Amino acid sequence: MSVYIRILKYLEPYRLIFIVSLAALTLGALLDGFSMILLIPFLRSLFGEANILTETGGLVDRVLDLTVGGLIDQGNPGAALRSTVLVIMAAILLKNLFFYAASVLGVRVQLGVVRDMRDQLYAHIQRLPLGFFDRFKTGQLVARVFSDTEKTREIISYAVAEVVKHIVSLIAFAAMLFIISWQLTLLALLVAPLFLGFLRPMLWRLRRGFRSAFDAQGELTNLVQETASGARVVKAYTAEEYEQGRFAGTNRQFYKSALRAERIRLLSSPLSEILGSAVTIVIVLVGAQIVFSGGLTAEAFLTFLTISLRVQSPLKALSTFPVRAQSSLAAADRFFEILDTSVEPRSLEARRIDGFEDAIVYDDVYFAYDEDEPVLEGVSFEVKRGEIAALVGPSGAGKSTIADLLPRFYEVTGGKITVDGVDIRALDLISLRHLMGVVSQETVIFHDTVKANIAYGDPERYSHEEIQTAARAANAHEFICRLPDRYDTILGDRGVRLSGGQRQRIAIARAILRDPPILILDEATSALDSESERLVQQAIDRLLANRTVIVIAHRLSTIQNAHQILVIDQGRIVEAGHHGELLELGGIYSRLSEIQLSRTGDPVGKRGSSEGVTVS
Q: Which of 103, 101, 91, 113 lies closest to 15 in space, CA to CA?
């Protein structure tokens, strides 16, 4: 489907406003052309002719007589001149009022379309699979939501406020010119198509150039966002000059791409001007011969020339419209590229699941981000209701991927995962995820109140007392009460007002409040000081009670009481069993235990259960 058509479909909700705007544009354009025709009686009265509308006059006089003949005094040249001037001024005033009304309505349509496009794109982004965000840069995404939709607005602006206006003006002016001299009008209409013929070859190059420029602009946005987010790392590694160099290089690429596109775009205006002037010269030469032969009066020819000069403006705008539209179309291409990306599979026929009763089963599960790069191969295990399964292994072994497959952040590429015997691909995605809580090591805190962060996703569902109870269970209530506005304190971007341990306790309170029967826990204590770790571990112990848990363990001492420990290596389960059994095997688990012992002096298996994952 043409990009033009896809964009113009966004006008559908504003059909009535568009029609009213079109009517106002039409009336304004007709008055604009009519005010030009009034130059004929104006010139006649100015030169002292007694009757500025002759009974034996041509089509022009008949049109004027039918419209404003009664308003113009034909007996007194001075009075006729004053009356004609007043009629011209009234026509100009009304014309501008109609054009203003049309412009206001046009802006309303433009802004409404941009709002609708952003709403649709953002809603679509929320339903995209997690893999999309893994490969798509955040800065590029921000640019497409804001810059590209705003740039796409320009084509709506041209279509509603300018192209329609110029088309109607061109038709009105052509009608007036035809009334004055049909021979000269036909001549002008024959040479007008030359405008588009000369400009067409540059359109594809222009669109491609703007697309390249917008891509570079998205890269700039991404760099600024990255360095702002990682300012601490940049300064710690004295990488300011390195980042300046990266930005300058990308900025140069944007400059070159934008300059190439602008050179082509700016060429359209002088080309149109030259062609328009050539057409005017032809009309003057031919028209002069008609006047000399008595086929046209001097004042009518002067009026024809005046109107033909006015015609150049809408004709030039229409001829350059395809050129001007290329930047908007390039932005629209980027907009629709995101919109055409497949969302997470959701079927109306999918089965809802309202509770968890039996077991989670991974049955010969395979997964690969790319076909030639398998991440998981033949993973099989079962976690019964109320059990804790711990995933351990070297970094990059596939532990997080196993956990991410359960809430369908990614779809398995082989085998299946079942919940209570039902393949999760047959389950309603929303109801499946409502069964689960996720607490990760990399806690996300939103720029909102403490209360909104704990009740994230459904703030109206929970009372203040329920939120407080969850915060107390997460050992968070005490530090929240020390914040300036307690539960109404805005936490800032990414929770900058909180320490790492406090952020983790907010995330745990969020999971406790939701009260999910299944919990996915990416161990949250590995980067905390001892006091924060103690408080967070206590909160985790409360969170785990009476739940079915898949925990990704970094510290083996925290999962010694798990019902089963699965050792993952290179995408496969290579060892499975209880803590003591795995130590006796002398395999990967045992080696990982020895490594951690040598680093921390904390012998695995000697800690009390209050500091590890406990089984209720």
A: 113
Q: With 0-12 CB in 10 A as exposed, 13-18 as middle and 19+ as buried, what is 602? A: middle
Return the amino acid letter for 254. F
Co-location of 149 and 78 in the same domain: yes
pLDDT digits (tens, 9 = 90+) for 147-206: 888 877 777 766 656 777 777 777 777 777 777 777 777 776 676 565 555 555 655 566
If asked whether residues 466 and 586 sit together in one domain, one would say no
**Residue span of the structural domain in which 426 resides:** 347-435+519-524+547-616
Q: Of 307, 339, 371, which one is at a domain's C-terminal end?
A: 339
Q: Rounded to two decimals, what is the model's pTM?
A: 0.70
Domain assignment present for residue 542? The answer is no
- 97 and 242, same domain (yes or no): yes
- Strands 388-392 vs 518-522: parallel, antiparallel or unpaired: unpaired
pLDDT of res. 50 = 46
- Pick 291 or 98 by higher pLDDT: 98
Candidate from 64-68, 520-524, 549-553 with smallest mean pLDDT:
64-68
The amino acid occupying position 369 is: Y
The CA distance from 135 to 119, in Å, is 23
Q: What is the pLDDT of residues 441-466, one digit of tens each?
A: 777 787 788 888 888 877 788 888 88
Which tokens belong to 9?
A: 């479909």
Q: Give the three-class secondary structure for 114.
A: helix
Is beta strand 388-392 parallel, antiparallel or unpaired with respect to 373-384?
unpaired
- 3-state SS assignment for residue 380: strand
One domain, residues 48 and 185:
yes
Domain count along the chain = 3
User: What is the per-residue DSSP string for 6-39?
Assistant: HHHGGGGGGHHHHHHHHHHHHHHHHHHHHHHHTH
Q: What is the secondary structure of 388-403 as a DSSP string?
A: EEEEE-STTSSHHHHH
Mean pLDDT on 43-70: 54
- Token pair for 472: 């107390």
In a domain, 535, yes or no: no
What are the DSSP calls for 506-527, one per residue? HHHHHHHHH--SEEEEE---TT
d(CA 498, CA 208) in angstroms, rounded, equals 46
Helix (H, G, I), strand (E, B) or coil at 50: coil
